[in-house]
Design brief:
- The protein is of the alpha+beta class.
- The chain has one domain (about 30-175): Immunoglobulin-like.
- It is about 20% helix and about 25% strand.
- The strands form 2 sheets. It has a 5-stranded mixed β-sheet. A 4-stranded mixed β-sheet has the order 2-1-4-6, covered by helices on one side.
- It is globular.
- The structure holds copper (II) ion.
């Protein structure tokens, strides 16, 4: 059931991209589900890695548990900058009911890393590549330690670092699922 739903979503994304190439700048859309196992011990974004065309509206939907969708950006509690410099940061706030959704339209090309505020330490993070990968999200997690002066941003927790799919894999596979 869950697998079928995922493949339906991926097919929809492919159709949306194909439509964009045929009709100039149609409204491309993609969906990411916010999931949990029964006892809440495991939580994740599905897919965890996604490639989209610039201008795509990405929609996150709660399937179970309570989550946020929050961009890695200093405006969000001092997190390190891991979205393009000129992109608008976002924070959904708490989404608590199944079916609750939040969406952003991503126009600036580059890599966007984001997290779920209550579950970041548990590794609930995701990565979206918009067009060609570039920007702070394409750099190593410690990149800001070499800036002068060094910003007092938060480190990305180890469990979170481990769960980001590589940019190469996202570009090659378009949608990467947690295994
Ligand atoms: Cu969460």
């Amino acid at each position: 059931m869950i697998d079928r739903r995922f493949f339906t979503g991926a097919g929809g994304l492919w159709l949306a991209c194909a439509a964009v190439s045929r009709r100039a700048r149609a409204a491309a859309r993609a969906e990411i589900r916010m999931r949990s196992d029964v006892d809440g011990a495991a939580v994740w974004f599905d897919p965890v890695g996604l490639w989209v065309e610039p201008g795509t509206t990405v929609r996150w939907v709660i399937e179970s548990n309570v989550h946020t969708v929050t961009a890695y950006h200093p405006d969000n509690d001092g997190h390190s900058l891991r979205i393009p410099e000129t992109a608008q940061p976002w924070d959904s706030g708490y989404l608590v009911n199944p079916g609750d959704a939040f969406e952003v339209t991503l126009t600036v090309p580059g890599v966007y890393d984001y997290y779920c505020a209550p579950h970041e330490e548990g590794g609930m993070v995701g990565r979206i590549v918009v067009g060609a990968p570039s920007g702070p999200g394409s750099r190593p997690f410690e990149y800001f330690k070499t800036l002068d002066p060094v910003p007092s941003w938060l480190d990305v927790p180890d469990a979170a670092q481990r769960n980001f799919p590589s940019i190469d894999r996202i570009v090659a596979e378009r949608a990467v699922r947690r295994h």
